[in-house]
């Protein structure tokens, strides 16, 4: 069982990811794809006159401030354009993919965080009206039902709160929670860089290996959204996933290359 998370930043080759995924699926592997859509969401939000707002927590993590209107744009892109675009690619490659959000069947479930602490101009402020949370429960029964029937699940945020409200959750940490719940052999976090870089954006400074018991000490090398990937990797290995790989989704065979050791391997 392999959980593959592909990001939503510019430069990602979804055709390459889907072609590689299809080949491995046809060879009999059990795979689940989790995807993002941040780049396209930013573009659509700008076009609709509701530009994205990003906030930085006191601990240095950057996230999207998700008011109700932002959540609706988020769902439009993630659950609509991105999800169905990936499902269509896989269907054309002969893979019977099923696209669902974490809200469907409460695949991803967690607590709704209505307010967020953010640093603005050196001061910590509390912003209310947020629709975010963290995945605390995974509906493995629904995922296993699909896998055992031969389908390939293609999953995306948002998740459901315990009250049934849609919440924006980090895709990398959602994929980590999924990998832990399903006792996956490997979790792949694919993005538009070759892995974790010691000196971003210098791609020759790629960190090849991170010991599983020391993941959090590598947070200092993670820039912006890569911090959440490192956090997700730490949560996955802590939860029993044997191998987490930060890989490159820009070309080639992203999944096979990562499993063959390209990128940053946490084990």
Automatic annotation (TrEMBL):
User: Which residues belong to any copy of the Aspartate/glutamate/uridylate kinase domain?
Assistant: 1-246
Q: Which InterPro entries match?
A: AceGlu_kinase-like_sf, AcgluKinase_fam, Asp/Glu/Uridylate_kinase, Glu/AcGlu_kinase, LysZ
Query: Where does the chain bind substrate?
Result: 64, 168
What is the reaction catalyzed?
[amino-group carrier protein]-C-terminal-N-(1,4-dicarboxybutan-1-yl)-L-glutamine + ATP = [amino-group carrier protein]-C-terminal-N-(1-carboxy-5-phosphooxy-5-oxopentan-1-yl)-L-glutamine + ADP
> What residue range is the signal peptide?
none
- Highest taxon of source: Bacteria
Residue numbers marked as site, Transition state stabilizer: 5, 229
Q: Keywords of this protein's UniProt record, alphabetized?
A: Amino-acid biosynthesis, ATP-binding, Cytoplasm, Kinase, Lysine biosynthesis, Nucleotide-binding, Transferase
Instruction: List, alphabetically, the SUPFAM superfamilies matched.
Output: Carbamate kinase-like
Q: What is its main location?
A: cytoplasm
* Keyword Plastid in record: no
For the protein in the UniProt heading, the enzyme class is transferase
Localization terms from the record: Cytoplasm
Task: Give any Pfam family that matches.
Answer: AA_kinase
Q: What is its pathway?
A: Amino-acid biosynthesis; L-lysine biosynthesis via AAA pathway; L-lysine from L-alpha-aminoadipate (Thermus route): step 2/5
What EC number(s) does the entry state? Answer: 2.7.2.17
Residues in a coiled coil are none
One example GO MF annotation: kinase activity
Is Cytoplasm a UniProt keyword of this protein?
yes
Question: What is the role of this chain?
Answer: Catalyzes the phosphorylation of LysW-gamma-alpha-aminoadipate.
Q: Which family does it belong to?
A: Belongs to the acetylglutamate kinase family. LysZ subfamily.
What name goes with this protein?
Answer: [LysW]-aminoadipate kinase
Per the record, the gene is: lysZ
């Amino acid at each position: 069982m392999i959980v593959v998370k592909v990001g939503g930043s510019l430069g990602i080759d979804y055709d390459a990811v889907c072609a590689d995924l299809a080949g491995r699926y046809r060879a009999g592997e059990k795979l689940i794809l989790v995807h993002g859509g941040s780049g396209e969401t930013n573009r659509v939000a700008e076009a609709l006159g509701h530009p994205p707002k990003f906030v930085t927590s006191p601990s240095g993590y950057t996230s999207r401030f998700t008011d109700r209107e932002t959540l609706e744009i988020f769902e439009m892109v993630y659950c609509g354009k991105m999800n169905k675009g990936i499902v269509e690619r896989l269907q054309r490659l002969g893979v019977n993919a099923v696209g669902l959000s974490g809200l469907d069947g409460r695949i991803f479930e967690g607590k709704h965080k209505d307010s967020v602490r953010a640093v603005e101009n050196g001061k910590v402020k509390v912003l209310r009206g947020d629709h975010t949370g963290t995945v605390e429960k995974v509906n493995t029964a629904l995922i296993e039902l699909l896998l055992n029937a031969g389908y390939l699940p293609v999953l995306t945020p948002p998740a459901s709160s315990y009250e049934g409200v849609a919440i924006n959750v980090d895709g990398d940490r959602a994929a980590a929670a999924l990998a832990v719940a399903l006792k996956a052999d490997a979790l792949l976090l694919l993005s538009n860089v070759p892995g974790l870089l010691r000196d971003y954006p210098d791609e020759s400074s790629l960190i090849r290996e991170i010991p599983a018991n020391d993941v959090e000490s590598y947070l200092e090398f993670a820039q912006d959204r890569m911090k959440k990937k490192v956090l997700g990797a730490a949560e996955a290995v802590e939860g029993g996933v044997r191998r987490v790989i930060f890989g490159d989704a820009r070309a080639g065979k992203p999944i096979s290359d990562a499993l063959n050791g390209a990128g940053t391997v946490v084990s």
